[in-house]
Design goal:
With 196 residues, the protein is an alpha/beta fold. Helix content is 58%, strand content 15%. The chain has helices at residues 14-23, 31-41, 43-53, 65-72, 76-99, 132-143, 147-156, 160-166, 176-195, and strands spanning 2-8, 27-30, 58-59, 62-63, 105-109, 124-129, 169-172. It has a 5-stranded parallel sheet, sandwiched between helices. The protein has a two-stranded antiparallel sheet with strand order 3-4. Strand 3 (58-59) and strand 4 (62-63) form a beta hairpin. Helix 2 (31-41) crosses helix 5 and helix 6 crosses helix 7 (147-156).
């Protein structure tokens, strides 16, 4: 199965691009959502997280996100340790999922495709880019976050220039109608690439 990685910074609209591809019949694997799910449902991953970060990581309701976030965010070594447990499980799950899909290609949607070196697990990478001011407005509206919080998150991510340099294709999300046309064009290109 031909695998396409789609990434973008906060507020870039990568989820919008993926939703448009899903409307065209493309199977999309949302790695962020699936990681959260697997951290609760995978007994092996759960045991590894408890062994590394403590029993407080889970409550009777499941993953204690607040506690774990406090432990890892702002501490690069702790975040790297968590990612080293989560990413292999997510990628194994993605591989199994991808092989059971139909169509010309599948999409791995990941905010940290390049940061986590996941681009090595796909055939081609696509970066979704947008104007920084638009990204800030979208993220503030979507997350109910302050401007300062969004700007800080953008500052911790790769720049759009870096993403564009590392991706084979880049798609710019400013106007929704233009974006739809660009996504249709991208879809045709990826269908062609998958047969090459």
């Amino acid at each position: 199965m031909y695998k396409v990685g789609i990434t973008g910074g906060i507020g870039s609209g990568k989820s919008t691009v993926c939703a448009m591809l899903e409307e065209m019949g493309v199977a999309v694997y949302n790695s962020d959502a699936r990681a959260k799910e697997l951290m609760t449902t995978s007994a092996t991953l759960r045991e590894a997280i408890v062994a590394r970060f403590g029993a407080e990581c889970y409550t009777s309701e499941g993953l204690n996100r607040g506690y774990l976030a406090e432990r890892v965010f702002g501490d690069a070594a702790e975040l790297a340790a968590l990612n080293s447990l989560v990413h292999p499980v997510v990628m194994a799950d993605f591989e199994t999922w991808a092989e059971s899909q139909q169509g010309s290609y599948v999409v791995l949607e990941s905010a940290i495709l390049f940061e986590a070196s996941l681009e090595q697990r796909v055939d081609v990478a696509v970066a979704v880019l947008s104007l920084e001011e638009l990204r800030i407005e979208r993220a503030m509206r979507r997350d109910g976050a302050s401007r300062e919080q969004v700007v800080a998150r953008i500052g911790r991510q790769l720049s759009d220039d870096e993403r564009a340099d590392r991706a084979k294709y880049a798609i710019v999300n400013i106007d929704l109608e233009e974006l739809r046309e660009d996504v249709e064009q991208l879809h045709r290109r990826l269908c062609y690439d998958s047969r090459a």
